[in-house]
Amino acid sequence: MKLKILAFGIAKDILGGTEKEIDLAEGTTVQHLKAKLEDEYAELKRLKSYFIAVDDEYAENDQVITCTNEIAIIPPVSGG
């Protein structure tokens, strides 16, 4: 299945844009998505942390993703 990934903050810089499309098998979990992203974009591993949001809510690693879900990478946020 093809997933559209939205990227924000430093994740946008790492992925080279605000949107990327990635191919994953049906029944993929958030953990599998993270592993695939980190294989393709090794700089993600260097982030202290980042979250995956599915349909505007933070997702757990075991959550299953479908092609109809909106997926976003939420990097760490700093403030001042």
Automatic annotation (TrEMBL):
An example molecular function term from Gene Ontology annotations: nucleotide binding
One of the GO biological process terms: Mo-molybdopterin cofactor biosynthetic process
Pfam family, one: ThiS
Domain of life of the native organism: Bacteria
Gene Ontology CC annotations of this record: molybdopterin adenylyltransferase complex
Alphabetized UniProt keyword annotations: Nucleotide-binding
Signal peptide: none
Name of the molecule in the record: Molybdopterin synthase sulfur carrier subunit
Family statement: Belongs to the MoaD family.
